[in-house]
Specification:
Helices cover 31% and strands 23% of the residues. By secondary structure, the protein is α+β, with helices and mostly antiparallel strands. The termini are far apart.
Length: 310
């Protein structure tokens, strides 16, 4: 699927306000509306693109996701149905004199308008109405399945071969797990869903990523946290400890006088940022072990320290 630039589609800057986006949409929707361009396939396609761009950029949550993850990352999270969910432009089309132009997401389209105008169901494939399954209403069935990956596979990325059943037959497909992916994110495999009728595109396969926990690394966004315990003497005098990282072990200096529950930061030793360069950090959580049982000599030493004010 070719990359889409929704800002370019509407001819606005990334810093555009909602008023700017709405104004640009109205101008383009009026220009390419099927009632003004009957039988013009290019205008029809442009009209669909303009509506999709507005459905994303007019929704603050979807716009933030699009800005954060880019086109590829956004479409791994949002299906075509998700994009148009809750999108209703009836009022805008009525303002433009087109009598509504479409129904609410998931509902039926408004039907053929009086005077012989176009029908949104005809334009977008029918069945789900404009804003529901939209132009993809007649494609094959979409599939969804959970894909479990190990912690380090999610960190570094990996190519996996997965199997799934369709109509009693076993399918295999290779999928590239991007580095830095986390539980709850989705991957979309275009055309790997159910078959459709003649001339209709197949559905898509959506993979819900589930990442197994690691025995000692804990993830916090793109940072990882590792707990390390040191002795009281090491906390007072300072020491050097060996710390495992996602790549290799590293010698880390613990400064003298470190306090309990202090975190030492190893910059760039965390998880790769999903879909963009750079990495998070590794945080080494230092806890100071207090001995439970002291022999006579140890107790004497601590008593001497106590007399010295420690």
């Amino acid at each position: 699927m070719a990359a889409k630039d929704y800002y370019k589609t509407l001819g606005v800057h990334k810093a555009a306000t909602q008023d700017d986006i709405k104004k640009a949409f109205k101008n383009l929707a009026f220009k390419y509306h099927p009632d003004k361009n009957p039988g013009d396939k290019k205008s029809e396609d442009r009209f669909k693109d303009v509506n999709e761009a507005y459905a994303v950029l007019s929704d603050e949550k979807k716009r933030r996701q699009y800005d954060q993850f880019g086109d590829s990352g956004f479409h791994q999270r949002y299906s075509q149905e998700d994009i148009f969910k809750g999108f209703d432009i009836n009022d805008i089309f009525r303002e433009m004199g087109f009598g509504g132009g479409g129904g609410r997401a998931g509902g039926r389209a408004g039907g053929r308008q009086r005077g012989g105008g176009f029908n949104m169901e005809d334009l977008f494939g029918g069945g789900g109405g404009f804003g529901g399954r939209q132009a993809y209403a007649q494609k094959g069935q979409d599939f969804t399945m959970d894909l479990f990956v190990d912690f380090l596979e999610a960190v570094h990325g990996i190519e996996k071969t997965i199997e799934y059943m369709f109509d009693g037959s076993r399918r295999q497909v290779k999928v590239r797990i991007p580095a830095g992916i986390s539980s709850g994110q989705k991957l979309r495999l275009t055309g790997k869903g159910g078959e459709a009728g003649p001339g209709m595109p197949p559905g898509d396969l959506y993979l819900n990523i589930q990442v197994h926990e690691h025995p000692f690394f804990k993830r916090d966004g793109d940072d990882i946290i590792l707990n390390r315990e040191i002795k009281i003497s090491e906390a007072v005098l300072g020491t050097t400890i060996e710390v495992p990282t996602l790549q290799e072990s590293k010698q880390v200096k613990v400064p003298a006088g470190i306090q309990n529950n202090t975190k030492l930061r190893l910059r760039g030793y965390g998880i790769p940022h999903f879909g963009k360069p750079g990495k998070g950090d590794q945080l080494v959580h230092i806890t100071v072990a207090v001995p439970r049982d002291l022999n006579a000599q140890q107790r004497k030493l601590f008593e001497e320290l106590a007399r010295e004010g420690f």
